[in-house]
Amino acid sequence: MTEDESEKHYRSGLPGFLGTIDTFISKLEAVILALGVLLMAFNTIANVIARFVFGDSIYFSGEINRILIIMITFAGIGYAARHGRHIRMSAIYDALPVGGRKVLMVVIAFITSLVMFFLLYYSVIYILDLYSKGRILPALGFPIWTIYVWAPLGFLITGIQYLLTAIKNLTSRDVYLSTGVLDGYKDTETEV
């Protein structure tokens, strides 16, 4: 199975209820990301056509793209965690034997999960502060706090994903970067 096929048909490596949660979150992320990118492309193309054909931009296009960028960014952090695609600084990690890498991965995943839940807490406080101020988007006219709801949702999903990664590493013989990605490097170099 190729990498693209594995992403389309994601199956959690976790047993039982945790696997069900993991698979559900994966499908939710995929829908949010695909819908967000498609809507942003459609909105941008429509705005360019309106500007050059009719001589006037769609007045709310910038606000819609702002909302979609926030949505894609915070849905994308969970997606990157699920597929083991976050940037890693792994010089010390790679020098360790398998047992050391496993312990370090559990610690890294658990601490990262805690950081995500910490950011979740503060993003909710930020949204409540925006809500209390009652500001609205100038063109669309709905409350500004609603566009930032994606931040705590993204932090929640990413925190859960890293917690599940820690659990996967505690219950498995191998070392996992996420619940479905085994630690290791692919040989992508080709000879000339």
UniProtKB/TrEMBL annotation:
Ranges where the Tripartite ATP-independent periplasmic transporters DctQ component domain occurs: 42-170
Alphabetized Pfam families for the sequence: DctQ (PF04290)
Main localization of the protein described in the UniProt heading: membrane
Localization terms from the record: Cell inner membrane
Keywords annotated in UniProt: Cell inner membrane, Cell membrane, Membrane, Transmembrane, Transmembrane helix, Transport
Superkingdom of origin organism: Bacteria
InterPro entries linked: DctQ, TRAP_DctQ
Its membrane topology: Multi-pass membrane protein
Membrane-spanning ranges: 30-52, 64-82, 103-128, 140-164
Quaternary structure (record): The complex comprises the extracytoplasmic solute receptor protein and the two transmembrane proteins.
Summary of the function given for this chain in its UniProt record: Part of the tripartite ATP-independent periplasmic (TRAP) transport system.
Family: Belongs to the TRAP transporter small permease family.
Protein name, per record: TRAP transporter small permease protein
Species of origin: Halomonas aquatica
